[in-house]
Specification:
5% of the residues lie in helices and 51% in strands. It is mainly β. The protein is globular and about 50 Å long.
Length: 116
């Protein structure tokens, strides 16, 4: 089950969120050969026109288990003020050539207005 976290973003701001993943033993999760993705939208039933993709990077070295999510100020400026939902997934291809997907984080984002 994914962890749950709430965030608040200001329109027109650059956003960077660093996630430090650990395995079941409490050690840094080795993300070698993993991919990661994250999206936000107004609600779970929104269409694709309402979806914003985060830029997602697995930091080097991948053995440190750190993932960074980011949005540019242009992206956040284009968001409507209000509430959103989001999630973050990591995936890898196992030895049977099957893609294994794990949702690691989910929650709500509040976008606040900006004057400038």
């Amino acid at each position: 089950m994914a962890e749950y976290e709430k965030f608040t973003f200001d329109k027109g701001s650059d956003i960077a969120i660093q996630l430090e993943l650990v395995d079941f033993t409490g050690n840094a999760k080795d993300l070698t050969d993993y991919d990661a993705s994250a999206k936000m939208k107004r609600n779970f039933n929104s269409d694709s026109d309402d979806t914003t993709d985060f830029a997602v990077a697995i930091n080097s070295p991948a053995t440190d288990g750190i993932v960074t999510l980011s949005l540019t100020n242009t992206q956040t400026d284009a968001l409507k003020v209000g509430n959103y939902v989001y999630d973050v997934q990591i995936s890898f291809v196992d030895s049977n050539n099957s893609t294994i997907i794990e949702r690691i984080l989910e929650g709500k984002i509040r976008v606040n207005p900006s004057v400038t």
